[in-house]
Amino acid sequence: MSYKLRDYQIECIEEIESSKKKCNLAVSSVGSGKTVIFSELSVKAKGRVLILTPSTELREQAESKLKEINPEANIGSVQADLDDVDAKIVVSTRQSLTHSKSTRLKRMLEHGDFEYLIVDEAHQAPKQIKKVLSKLNDSVKIIGFTATPYTRECIEIFGQPIFRRTILDMIDSEYLVEPYAMIVQSKTNISHVKTTSGDFAQGELEDVVNNAERNQLIIESYKKFGSTRKLTLVFAAGCEHGKELLKEFQLNGIASAYIDGETSREVRKELISKYKKKEIKVLINVMTLTTGFDVPETDCVIICRPTKSRILYEQIIGRGLRLAEGKSECLIVDIQDITKKHDLMDISCVMETKIKNGETYRKAKERNEEEKRIEQVRKQEEEKKSKERELVRQKELEIVAKRIKLINRDMKLGFESRKLDWFRVDTNTYSLTYGFNTHYVIEGSHDKFAIYDVSTDKDSKHSTYIDEFDNVVDAITYIEKKAKLNTHTDPNADWKKEPPTEGQKKYCGWAKTKVDAARYFSSNAISGIINKQRRMG
Hints:
Elements (H helix, E strand, L loop, with lengths): L6 H12 L4 E6 L5 H11 L3 E6 L2 H14 L5 E5 L2 E2 L5 E5 H5 L5 H6 L4 E7 L5 H10 L5 E6 L5 H7 L2 E5 L1 H6 L5 E12 L5 E2 L2 E2 L1 H8 L2 H15 L5 E4 L3 H13 L4 E4 L5 H12 L5 E4 L14 E4 L6 H9 L10 E10 L8 H5 L9 H47 L14 E5 L2 E5 L4 E8 L2 E8 L6 E8 L2 H12 L18 H7 L5 H23 L1
Parallel strand pairs: 1-7, 1-8, 2-5, 2-6, 3-5, 6-7, 9-16, 12-14, 12-15, 13-14, 15-16
Antiparallel strand pairs: 3-4, 10-11, 17-18, 18-19, 19-20, 20-21
Helix pairs in contact: 1-2, 2-3, 10-11
């Protein structure tokens, strides 16, 4: 029969068929139909194909899809009592080929080499995968399929992906529904739980999170957020935790069931069947429904076990994102615990955008994009203002440069708006008093500005040459660094606000203020000393 493939499924098959590499990795999100892709590839193959799966459910799922695509295909099963080693397409669990007493792989090869080895859930069990690879014919082309290629071992075996469709690609393309996030904060502190192989030690984690207060919070969260949902999948931290949650759900009159690794295959099938029929509204599990579980009507997932693993978190939320009639989103209720030590995986990490409580992925994405746009506009405005300020500064520098040229002709411009108390001796001479009778003096002549240290004390009048500059601004800067700020150079010093004494007035004759008197006296004294120095050469 003809099976309708999606565009990306066709693209994936074409990439695999055209690849010249021996080992290849195809990354295809949960809900993207990985089984459809590798089943179509297997049916199209001219040679034999070996498909490795991690569980009975996934083996049966692959066989069912193969028969759906081509009912006439020669398909064989290898697991337990099933031993169709001579089939053209052999579907086997990994364990059936890798346990110490197994001869099945050897007997398969007696019926011919394989064109393809297809590994489902390729991120799992690297040692088992390597063991199978070591025994196959050299000409086999190896294809690993996974939704979560986040392990170093996966990349080491299969190489970088030749094809990729992430969970975000699938949501954006509307092949998956979007998550609707609700973070519920508990009071349980998991800071001291140890880490094993990159995630929490499960037994220790369960001991901490399996407490009455937290379990009651989970029940109340379901009542508040999930009770109107059709089907809810709950992920517990361990078997005892799962059983406690089952008891609490049932005490609250909620139709619920529990599955773990010890649940028999028959009971599991029965419970999942009741769940599909909605006879059970809440299905609690412990690490058993993260892969191969396909009930698209599931529209609520409650994460009761904290994790640091992106692989696990993505697999958990993926159980609720499959398309179903009348379903537009899936509620993800994440019970988050207190921790000061661990980096917990959450919905925002997987969706690669900050999702607030009560937001869908698309609403969060739109909000984040709008915030980024606003921030970008703000930065552009700031850059524009910065450029404008830089232009103003450049113009100011140009003006300063022009003024500096003028200063060499008119010294007065150089002393405008100075913070220290400069006073004009004459047209070409300015002084800064730094002691009772001591002054720094700048004298300009023919674009040269000489600096003197002048004493006007009546008993020791003298002038000492210090240095010379070709720009008055440089000369002023030099002196002000030497003088710094003291009560003589400070124009606002308190003693300068006092009126002149009668003796000062009498000495200066015409003075009306203290400042006039001091500067008249200093100016005449400085002029006399500088003129004397000029005469002496």
